[in-house]
Each structure stands twice: as C-alpha cells, then as structure tokens.
C-alpha cells in the first residue's frame, strides 16, 4: 500500500532532474561522463521504483527492497526537490531584485546541501544514537512505599530496523539494565510486518529483567495487518506467534488486563490495553475490562483510589477515552516516533498528534509519550533520536 505513492515519487524524480538539467547542463559543453553521472542516481531510482511497482499488492515480501529504495530516495531526490522549490522562490524574488540572482542560487544550493547532510546523518549514525531520558511524576495518590520507584519504558523497537545492526538491540538491553529499574515496560510495535522479525533477537530481549517484572502491550504494527501479502488467516496465526514469543521471553503481555504491584503493604496497579487509535489504526482497547477488579476502582472515594499506570500505545487514546472515562493517573505511550525527525524542537508530528513527545499534564494526571527506538519503514532518525525513558514516581 505504501508503494502506491510511487507515481508521485517518480514525478518528483523526473521534475527535479529536468529542472537541474536546464539550469546547469543545457546549452553548455560537458564531457559524456558528466551527463552519465548527472542522470545515473535518478535513473537507478527509477528502475528500482518500477521493480517495486510490479510487486504483488505493492508490498514486497522482502522489506529490504523497500527500505533501500526509500533510503536512496531521501538521500538523492529530496535534496534535489528542495533545491527546485527554493530556487523557484528565488526566481520570484529576482523579478523584483535582479541583483539577488547569485545570492538566491547560493541559498538554494546551501539548503539542498544542508538537507543532504541531514539525510546522510539520519540514515547512517542517527538510528544508533541511543539516548536515556529521565523524567519525574508526582502524585498524591502514590503510596509512600513507591516514592522513588523507577519505571523504565522503551517503545517502538520495529526490529526490522536492526536486521543489519543487531548490536543496537544489545545496546538497548544493556542501557535499560544500567538504569536499575524496579519495573520495565514496553509500549508496543515490537515488529513492523511479520513475527519472524524477532528471529535472532529473542535471546537478547529475554535478558531484560526487573524486581517487579517486564511488561508489554501490542502496538498497531503488532497486529501484522501491514503484511498485505499475507491472508487474514496467516496474519492471525502470526499474531498468536508474536504473543507466544513475547511470553517466552518472560514478558508479561497485557491484553486489556491489569496487574497489582506490591511494595510492602502498599500497592499500585499496572494496566495494559490493546492498541486504541483513530482510523486507520486498530481500536481494540477495552478500559472497562482492563480496570475491572482493581481494588477501590469505580467507588468514587478518593481515599480508596489506587494509583494506576496505564500502558497504551497510541497517545490519542488519552484525550479520547482515558481522561473522560477513567481516573488513571499516569499513561505511558509511544507510536509517534516524533516522525523520526526533529529540528530545534520542531517536528511534523505536531500536525498529526496534539501530544507527540515527553510529558503532558491535565490537572493531576499525566501522559508520557516516548519517541521510541526503531523505524516503522525506514531506519532513519534525526533529532528525534532513539531513546529509553526512565520515569521516577514520587509521592506528593
């Protein structure tokens, strides 16, 4: 399905090369090899695009093909398109300020080079620049025994991102364990399209352990509906395999259910729901079912209200259902990735998600959104670096 945007991508490839040809090559004498080098990158991308177009259901079973194509597109075509756009704006400016022609070309070239460097950095070292981000959350409902309690959250591994970088997953596990967590939680999207992405990583991820356990939920990709080349029956079978393999790693997979965590005579509730997003994402979360049986829940008495931490992959769930329907104090989410791009604190994620990174509060209640670790389609990260999140709870 993703590859149905190929006609648009092909159009941008052709437009950018035609524009650059007439600006720098047309009417000038150049050796034959110069023409060859000028057209070669986009010619290769055009051939790759045509190969992908012929793939059944526009989704190659071998995701590597698609990753390579989109990575090269970002590195080659996007800087050219930016040059085209900025240069056309410059031409408009030059209608009023003719002497600015050289300056406009310089600005276009600089912008294009800047984007090329960003794409290169984001595709090379960006996906491995692992960060550890610390935050605190205080609540009057938190029992004194849990003051200073450390929850380590990681999210959106998308293991296909690390097929050629297995050492990155080992690094993630090592960094998590270095934080001395009381509890470890994974907030969804372990894989991108198939359960077999776990192959070779089971043993590494099973090294995670904490005094109060390792817990996980499903993200939208974990339902494997992006594997369009699989039948519904095959998708369902792989979903069950993915659940089974998580449990085999000693992860406690929460499917609209909860666990009571004890510290001495005090306790809190950890609640985990299935993915609950806005269309086209799955909406399978059942808060009522997940909260049923928690001591004091629904009694409307502040003195008996238990402190609850909710794991919900999609942050839009918080405003749509969590805030109006529950008294859950802290929600942990992922999903947005920060669109895997952030520059000076800005990300295109802002156009799609009201809450897309870090901590948000409504009164005494909070939502924490992790930028995650992997990439859903392309192993690219710039600014929105891969991260592990340490949330320390405090009694207010």
UniProtKB/TrEMBL annotation:
GO terms for biological process: lipid A biosynthetic process. The chain crosses the membrane at residues 6-22, 34-54, 66-90, 111-130. Keywords: Hydrolase, Membrane, Metal-binding, Transmembrane, Transmembrane helix. It is an enzyme of class 3 (hydrolase). Residues 150-338 form the Calcineurin-like phosphoesterase domain. Pfam families: Metallophos. One of its GO terms (cellular component) is membrane. InterPro entries: Calcineurin-like_PHP, Metallo-depent_PP-like, Metallophosphoesterase_sf. Its EC number is 3.1.-.-. GO terms for molecular function: metal ion binding; UDP-2,3-diacylglucosamine hydrolase activity. CDD domains: MPP_YkuE_C (cd07385). This is Putative metallophosphoesterase. It comes from Paraprevotella clara.
């Amino acid at each position: 399905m993703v590859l149905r945007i190929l006609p648009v991508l092909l159009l941008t490839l052709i437009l950018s090369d035609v524009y650059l040809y007439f600006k720098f090559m047309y009417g000038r004498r150049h050796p034959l090899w110069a023409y060859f080098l000028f057209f070669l990158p986009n010619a290769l991308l055009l051939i790759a695009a045509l190969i992908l177009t012929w793939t059944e259901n526009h989704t190659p079973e071998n995701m590597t093909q698609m990753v390579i194509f989109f990575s090269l597109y970002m590195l080659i075509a996007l800087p050219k398109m930016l040059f085209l756009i900025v240069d056309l704006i410059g031409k408009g400016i030059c209608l009023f300020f003719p002497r600015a022609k050289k300056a406009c070309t310089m600005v276009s070239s600089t912008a294009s080079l800047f984007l090329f460097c960003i794409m290169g950095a984001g595709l090379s070292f960006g996906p491995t620049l692992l960060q550890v981000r610390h935050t605190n959350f205080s609540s009057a409902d938190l029992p004194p025994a849990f003051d200073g309690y450390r929850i380590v959250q990681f999210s959106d591994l998308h293991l296909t991102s690390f097929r050629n970088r297995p050492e990155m997953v080992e690094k993630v596990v090592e960094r998590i364990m270095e934080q001395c967590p009381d509890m470890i939680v994974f907030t969804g999207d372990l894989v991108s399209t198939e359960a077999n992405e776990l192959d070779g990583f089971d043993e590494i991820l099973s090294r995670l352990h904490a005094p109060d356990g390792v817990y996980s939920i499903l993200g939208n990709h974990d339902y494997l509906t992006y594997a369009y080349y699989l039948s519904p029956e095959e998708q369902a079978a792989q979903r069950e395999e993915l659940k089974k393999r998580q449990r085999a790693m000693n992860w406690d997979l929460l499917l609209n259910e909860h666990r009571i965590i004890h510290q001495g005579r005090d306790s809190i509730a950890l609640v985990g729901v299935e993915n609950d997003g806005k269309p086209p994402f799955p909406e399978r979360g059942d808060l009522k079912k997940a909260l049923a049986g928690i001591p004091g829940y629904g009694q409307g008495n502040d003195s008996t209200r238990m402190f609850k931490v909710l794991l919900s992959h999609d942050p839009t769930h918080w405003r749509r259902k969590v805030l109006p329907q529950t008294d859950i104090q802290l929600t942990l989410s992922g999903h947005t990735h920060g669109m895997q791009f952030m520059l000076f604190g800005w990300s295109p994620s802002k156009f799609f998600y009201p809450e897309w990174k870090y901590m948000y509060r409504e009164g005494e209640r909070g939502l924490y959104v992790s930028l995650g670790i992997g990439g859903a389609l392309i192993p690219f990260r710039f600014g929105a670096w891969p991260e592990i999140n340490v949330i320390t709870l405090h009694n207010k």
